Amino acid sequence: MYLGIDCGTQGTKALVLDTHSGRVLGQGSAAHRLISGANGRREQEPADWLQAFEQATAQALQQAGVSGREILGIGVSGQQHGLVLLDGKGQVLRPAKLWCDTESAAENAHLLDFLGGDSGSLERLGVAIAPGYTVSKLLWTRDRHPEVFARIAHILLPHDYLNYWLTGRFSAEYGDASGSGYFNVRTRSWDTELLELIDPDGALVRALPELIESHRCVGPIRPQVAERLGLNPRALVASGGGDNMMGAIGTGNIAPGAITMSLGTSGTVYAYSDQPQVSPHPQVATFCSSSGGWLPLICTMNLTNASGAIRDLLGLDIDTFGALVGEAPVGAGGVLMLPFLNGERVPALPHATASLHGLTSDNLTRANLCRAVVEGTTFGLRYGLDLLRDSGIRSDAIRLIGGGAKSAAWRQIVADIMGAPVACPQHTEAAALGAAIQAVWCASHEHGEALSLDDLCERCVTLDDTRGAQPDAQRSRAYEGVYQRYREQVQQLQ
Ligand SMILES: Nc1ncnc2c1ncn2[C@@H]1O[C@H](COP(=O)(O)OP(=O)(O)O)[C@@H](O)[C@H]1O
Ligand SMILES: O=C(CO)[C@@H](O)[C@H](O)COP(=O)(O)O
């Protein structure tokens, strides 16, 4: 038995995987608190992640009817880009700034200038640093909280921090590291000179964790943590990775040919590549995968946070919301929503705000508003998919995951707007599943067996035939017109 954990923005998900049958035996989840403030502040207390880890794990074990003693390995997936700062005793120095925190957008612009703009950043790092990436959070901490900055002994990403808590070791792997903004995706190494620009004394460079390859384990679980979680003290902790990298493994996207689309708090679209073919489009991030290759990706910052905001505003539960989305016509009766509540990464509109267009006294209905937010957020993913297609990604096979993929109406809208068939894996919690699969793979290397990741994905990732969606030619044609209207509105904001 292996445990997969995904520390997402809204909560932690855990699952127990039986590697012999490839079946998920039990799942659990626990919510996270979000600290929001003016100027785009979005932070979380790492201590909350630990508590959620514990709760979700206990639930998953209970549902599986499995003793924690049977767990042979643990894989951890985490929201990308967050910054966890620790002092010399391994204590958290301040709340973690998250991927969706735009408070350090000015610092990002400053660093991007230093790198020579998007093209300089692409040339040097293989990615164009964007607001939300980790590196600008370090500059922000230096300038706004010098007393904290002076005490930094370790800089970790969320999943690195959870691995540290589990094992006592400071490590990182290529997938998540490639979203830091101080990592070169071509050479798979830290860009220490960029960190020295922020801190010429070299303390940040000394605070970097050790990089390990995706197929390695960080080490065994610490006895006191094993006891707290009721787990086998011999369980091995895998390298883990960013949630999108783990979502790739959990959807079997570990070779060229498939596209994974995630409808989580963020919206992401990505496809595996075995070469670091850096896209000329700065909005396409050529991250590393957590399976040995690369994972060109686009990310929108407004997805289920936007649909959730409209749902809350109208006082609807999830099922009623889904029913209303299904009731409204294609194009929401002329209501177009630009859902940029948090600014936006793709399209690149860091300072944009959300807006509603085309409202009349006839079309201002709850159903149209619900459909408009789903369509508007999905147009952002189409915009990103077009950039990926333009960068050479040829596949049309979309695997849909994340909370929003539970909605039948949303799945159909994705198929119609993308003009491509959509398939859902049995487990929409693909990042947690990918983490568990990666844990089996890493443990097998540790034991000298080196199982094939391909075989493991084949055994553990199955598609759910009842939740696919085929594009409808008439609706897809109608959506082309609405999408052009979206693009025109976006252009006016650029
Ligand atoms: N049936 C549904 N229809 C629409 N949205 C849903 C549905 N089920 C869950 N969600 C949305 O998915 C969100 C959680 O998605 P998830 O992928 O777990 O996010 P994250 O990984 O960012 O924490 C919930 O907040 C909710 O808004
Ligand atoms: O910033 C990105 C990818 O670059 C996000 O995709 C985060 O990794 C957060 O993911 P979710 O919490 O939405 O799953």
From TrEMBL:
Active site residues per record: D243
Gene name per UniProt: xylB
Domain Carbohydrate kinase FGGY N-terminal: residue ranges: 1-250
Superkingdom as given in the UniProt entry: Bacteria
Protein name, as recorded: Xylulose kinase
Organism listed in the record: Phytopseudomonas seleniipraecipitans
Family indicated by similarity: Belongs to the FGGY kinase family.
EC number: 2.7.1.17
All copies of domain Carbohydrate kinase FGGY C-terminal, residue ranges: 261-441
GO molecular-function terms, A-Z: D-xylulokinase activity
Keywords, sorted A to Z: ATP-binding, Carbohydrate metabolism, Kinase, Nucleotide-binding, Transferase, Xylose metabolism
Pfam families: FGGY_C, FGGY_N
